[in-house]
Backbone:
């Protein structure tokens, strides 16, 4: 802990570490005993100093990879005083683990279906982004006069469960439920476009059918592309895309009818 | 892009994990003098223990489920039936619709175990039946929707009635196989796979019925019924009938006759069920 040398030594150095966001969060191999992983907070280690919002710091260049959370922050300011005051609490979004930057990056990946995707993109299962997209989908349906949050929730739960079982059976490596839910949630984004079209004009004509088919294809293509690269499945992209298309087809049915 | 706040730990490296454990060990000595306000609750030793207990309970529960799920659902055996690729699925679907030109129906073996479906088009798989079943339910919902008879619980009703018929078929065939005392390597999962292939024809029929009315429905369904009949006969013949009869050599004997009738009965049940499960969807 060389970084603490320049700090008051009568300081209590906390040891919070954010829980591993993937599904396998409970098998840490017994390191550090039962107390080693119970704190759902932040790792205020030497490399990650918490900056209270009222103490501005010069911006540090982001030296980590985009989709890998790394300890890339190097401190340049004196150690902030950890008091017990309300202002020193971390912002709510940090505490909840919602990182808008990462969400935006993954969204861009979904929106460019022809771009090559890195297999490690889904190493951190992030359910905040998919939650936002589901709520946005429900909201656009609401704008069109359909109060169907329950159906959206139920269908996404059943669909995620089905995809989870199927992918576990089809792939060599297994996959966690959080990863499946995360990928399917992110690829719901084009469906939000479809339901916002439905607000303006009805989708029940020929144009609506073509648009619906195109959007379903887009969603399932992105989802299958991410699954294939994350799980290293070969020559099975269409086979993975088909159940995704069925799931997104049900969402489209809700939007259209 | 500057990111001064480190928001996530890099948990992929053992080094960071070890570092965190080291820090945790040092943090244990000061349970009550936490400097971060939200940690006051967490630093309380009782809540520490509660959380540790809770998480270890969850971990144990997960292990228990993983261990026991293999007893009820043979996951590794099921994985064999899902080892498919796109080429296999394409060829198999073609075979289901047009089985008349295919010559060799034997499943290839590799040191006593059948080869995975990826490598042999004759091997049964569960991907096609599972996908076909789900598609059938959705198409049924669509068909009912276009006739304004749709409601979401009807989907559940369709699904459970189709599943019930499938279960009934499997039980009936297993029972008759037992009664005829035939020595076959036809497992239950194989049987479910074969019986699930008829959903492909049903989907085709209903879709044609939606697009072209009753005429289209009857045409496509008729064609699919005949093809599934031929497909089943050719596939089951190799499984149920004795080796000699399978090669086409007529063998006298009541047992072989009985097996022949059983095969034909199973194959004939397919078109009947295909019609029964779809005629009410097309008006």
Residues:
């Amino acid at each position: 802990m060389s970084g603490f040398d320049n700090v008051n030594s009568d300081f209590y150095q906390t040891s919070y570490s954010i829980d591993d966001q993937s599904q396998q969060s409970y098998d840490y191999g017994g390191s550090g005993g039962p107390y080693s992983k119970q704190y759902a907070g932040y790792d205020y280690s030497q490399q990650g100093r918490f900056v209270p919002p009222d103490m501005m710091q010069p911006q540090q260049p982001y030296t980590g990879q985009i989709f890998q959370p790394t300890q890339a922050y190097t401190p340049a300011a004196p150690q902030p005083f950890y008091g017990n005051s309300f202002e020193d609490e971390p912002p709510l979004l940090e505490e909840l683990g919602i990182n808008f930057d990462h969400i935006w990056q993954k969204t861009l990946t979904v929106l460019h279906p022809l771009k090559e995707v890195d297999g490690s993109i889904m190493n951190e299962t992030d359910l905040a982004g998919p939650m936002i997209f589901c709520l946005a989908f429900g909201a656009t349906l609401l704008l069109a006069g359909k109060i169907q949050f329950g159906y959206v929730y139920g269908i996404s739960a059943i669909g995620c469960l089905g995809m989870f079982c199927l992918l576990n059976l089809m792939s060599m490596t297994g996959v966690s439920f959080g990863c499946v839910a995360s990928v399917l949630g992110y690829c719901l984004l084009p469906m939000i476009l479809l339901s916002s079209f439905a607000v303006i004009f009805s989708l029940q004509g020929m144009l609506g059918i073509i648009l619906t088919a195109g959007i379903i294809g887009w969603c399932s293509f992105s989802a299958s592309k991410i699954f294939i690269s994350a799980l290293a499945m070969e020559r099975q992209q269409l086979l993975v895309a088909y159940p995704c298309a069925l799931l997104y087809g049900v969402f489209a049915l809700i939007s259209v009818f | 892009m500057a990111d001064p706040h480190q928001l996530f730990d890099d948990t992929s490296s053992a080094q960071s994990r070890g570092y965190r454990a080291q820090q945790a060990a040092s943090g244990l000595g000061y349970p009550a003098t936490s400097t971060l306000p939200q940690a006051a609750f967490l630093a309380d030793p009782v809540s520490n223990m509660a959380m540790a207990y809770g998480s270890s309970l969850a971990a144990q529960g997960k292990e228990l489920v993983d261990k026991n799920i293999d007893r009820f659902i043979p996951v590794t055996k099921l994985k064999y039936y899902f080892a498919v690729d796109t080429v296999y699925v394409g060829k198999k679907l073609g075979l289901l619709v047009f089985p008349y030109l295919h010559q060799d129906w034997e499943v290839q073996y590799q040191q006593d175990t059948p080869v995975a479906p990826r490598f042999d088009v004759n091997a049964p798989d569960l991907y096609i039946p599972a996908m076909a079943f789900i598609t059938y339910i959705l198409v049924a919902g669509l068909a009912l929707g276009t006739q304004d008879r749709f409601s979401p619980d009807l989907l559940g009703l369709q699904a459970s009635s189709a599943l019930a018929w499938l279960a009934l078929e499997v039980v009936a065939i297993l029972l008759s196989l037992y009664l005829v005392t035939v020595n076959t390597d036809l497992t239950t999962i194989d049987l479910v796979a074969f019986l699930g292939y008829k959903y492909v024809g049903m989907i085709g029929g209903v879709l044609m019925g939606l697009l072209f009315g009753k005429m289209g429905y009857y045409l496509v369904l008729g064609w699919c019924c005949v093809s599934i009949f031929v497909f089943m006969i050719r596939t089951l013949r190799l499984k149920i009938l004795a080796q000699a009869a399978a090669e086409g050599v007529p063998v006298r004997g009541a047992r072989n006759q009985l097996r022949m009738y059983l095969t034909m009965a199973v194959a004939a049940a397919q078109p009947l069920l295909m019609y029964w499960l779809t005629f009410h969807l097309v008006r």
Notes: The longest helix of chain B spans residues 198-240. The longest strand of chain B covers residues 109-110. Residues 101 and 127 of chain B are 24 Å apart (CA to CA).
